[in-house]
Design a protein that fits this description.
21 strands, Oxidized Rhodanese, domain 1, 4 domains
Length: about 550
Amino acid sequence: MKSATKMRQPRTIDAKELKKRLHDGKEIAVLDVREEGVFAKRHLLLAASAPLSRLEIRAPLLVPRRSTRVVLCDGNEGLAGRAAAVLSRFGYTDVAVLSGGVDAWAEAGYEVYSGINVPSKAFGEFVEHHENTPRMPAQEIKAKVDAGAPVVILDSRPLAEYSKMSIPGGIDCPGAELAFRAHDLIASPATLVVVNCAGRTRSIIGAQSLINAGLPNQVVALKDGTMGWHLAGFELARDQDHCAPPPTAKGLAAAKQAAARVAKRFDVRYIDVAKVARFAREMDQRTLYLFDVRSPEEYAAGHLHSTVNAPGGQLVQTTDAFAATRNSRIVLIDDHGVRATMTASWLIQMGWQEVYVVKAALESGPLHKGAAATEVLGLTDMRSAFITPNELQTEIAAGSATVLDFETSLRYRDAHIPGAWLSIRANLADNLKAISPARMLVLTSGDGVLARLAAPEAAGLSHLPVKVLQGGTAAWRASGLPVESGMTHLADTTEDVWYRPYDRTAKVEEAMKDYLTWEVNLMQQIQRDDDVAFRIFPR
């Protein structure tokens, strides 16, 4: 704590200066360092959520170039200053704090937003408004299905979301996969094609993707997605695994023709690997994001070094979770060019100026299997004392260990080590005051990484020995040790993450209606905001 008092005060800029920088055409990243649940209440449109608690994990992905202009914002409670010290310590050279935080931005007369992934959500509403994307309510679709009409329902979400709840009979075909895989799933031009997600955005973007691709069928977005289906009183399917298969040769040919049509309308640019190599040599001057937009399974089976898996639909749906640096270069990679082209078309419409699709990218070099190596600031320098799951179980049984869990509250609610306290790393000093520790503090998180980052801080705040659970809670569960569920021991609030309507345990239908209303109202709000750079292309 003594070192904190000597911490150099960060450089500050006011709201007017930040607004100017956002429009000067140069690279800039705005990071909001409050917890996601707090961020979701009120934030800047172009601010990416990068909580101080997870900054060492999020920053290298969101802002890979260390000399990028970075502006940090908070609620004027001091988190941004602490975050500035972290980034500066790890080589970020142009870091400033928004003076007065989000309140100062609002007081200057600029727009503030609620929710998360707002640029993408607002873009979905923009697309529906300007393209007149057709939609159909759940009641009408259900009637057609019950009458035996030819209907194909395509769920544009990742498999994990689809499996939790889906429209009965629906097939999982996430985002950019639609124009790639859908052709083989549609028996005739007379088949009605319905695209859905949980709410609105991916339903709209997915349906419009197939329309832009020139599918001859009637294509509609399920109005309000699975939430609309539920609110209409219809049952949802659970634990389904009906996934769209890879395209046949005929389906792939149709997909490539569709992609060419889209590329022409939206001016998609193609480059070769030599151009990517040139971009890579300029990474000290320009930010370069290398996104492989294939499915996670395909990526794990073989990917190029230094690429990040960003499945196309999710990249469009949550762009701010992948790329925080405005005016940067985005390079997209896949196998046949279809998914990268579809993804590029949407990013271009969102206002990203330099988006490229790489031709024959996967043929250019050795492919690596498994998950990509991820950079975590400072992790390699950590020297933690570890405890194994079985050793921890023994200490807990003896009453000798107090466990602090830094996992998200949602995952903590689902399963955690019995007796473990939910903690928020950025609030660790206050969290420790809220509990009565035993003779040892043991820190855990999902994979143990966040716990390792928190260990030196816990050691500086407590006189007790501090250890990290080797492999995190995942290792505990893999050892077959017991877990409990529910919000059993809270050392902090549960505002660390944003709760989707269907994540809630009470007033779920009310939350769904509020959420859907919020999405629709974004269109009116962005019309007042000059930070919006969405583009309209002629048909």
